[in-house]
Amino acid sequence: MRPYAVLLLLLPGLALAQQPQLTPGQRVRVTAPDFGLARAHATLEAIDGGELVLRTDATRRVPLASVARLEAYAGRRSHWLLGAGIGFVVGAGATYFVLNPPGGGSTALCDQSANQDAIGSAECLGLTALGGVAGAGLGALVGMFIKRDTWTDVPREGLRLSVVPQPNGRFTVAASLAF
Question: pTM of the full predicted structure?
Fold first, then answer.
């Protein structure tokens, strides 16, 4: 068999390996309106036959047929990039406002027509960009501390293949049955 043919056989497995695997003790979010669960957070205890065994305030058994949506906890993510973007806009805007106050006149540091001691436009642009960079740094720092939970949908059908790298440099193809 040619090497590229083996790669083509493994590509679907590589794509499916990113799907979440359910394991006992994992946090899940279940939507089962027919069973009284409208997006409940729980801990998965087991998948027993055709039922999910969940621990919320008490242990509950939910038939898989009544589950409209199942999501697995994927960790916490911060908003550092969003904070950096907002910080850049606010920092650049504030710097521009300080250098060119409304009303202008002789107090405008960047308006050479009203203030003979004003700095050049290249320097004003550089200071505005510098204010934006400082704001971006501060915004990224603040955004690092604002976190949210992320969830991934768990598919409910079919056979799931995954490719597992081994320490010796080889790969193992593993299969599991999705509920």
Answer: 0.56
